[in-house]
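Data availability (excerpt). The following record was deposited with the supplementary files.
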Amino acid sequence: LDGGHLMYYIVEILKGRPVSERAMQIGQHVGMAVLFTLMLLALYNDVNRLISN
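Predicted structure:
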């Protein structure tokens, strides 16, 4: 299991009913946006470090 599915299972336990497909889609889109943002930040830091030194 990955972290996303684990999060959905925890929400399902807390709410007492399954997470809707729409909520899962939104969660996956937000997760992908966060990952891409972190990747771009890491790339920026690497390039900045190469140029600075």
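Summary of structural features: The chain has a mean pLDDT of 92.
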